[in-house]
Amino acid sequence: MLALNWSGKEAIVKHRKEVSYWLLEPAPEFSLPVRPFIPSLRI
């Protein structure tokens, strides 16, 4: 089986194990406006 190795991989793996994850919060100021659903009349 192939293994991916590159320079600095160990540091990245170590860092990812040290840093806890966090959930992204919605940012309405960066969201697109919600448009009402209008069905298409094409057949």
Structure description:
The chain is about 25% helix and about 0% strand. The protein has 1 helix and no strands. The chain has about 45 residues and is mainly alpha-helical.
Identify the overall geometry. elongated
User: Termini distance?
Assistant: 51 Å
Q: Averaging pLDDT over every residue, what do you get?
A: 84
- Decide which structural class fits the backbone: mainly alpha
- Encode the helix/strand succession as letters: H
Largest sheet: none
Give the low-confidence spans.
none
Tally of DSSP β-strands: 0
Helix fraction by DSSP (H/I, runs of at least 4): 10-25%
Report the C-alpha radius of gyration, rounded: 22 Å
Count of separate DSSP helical elements = 1
Portion of residues in beta strands equals under 5%
Write a short abstract of this structure:
By secondary structure, this protein is an all-alpha fold. 23% of the residues lie in helices and 0% in strands. The model has no long low-confidence stretch (mean pLDDT 84).
Labels describing this entry:
43 residues, 0% strand, mainly alpha
Which helices and strands, and how do they pair?
Elements: H1 9-18
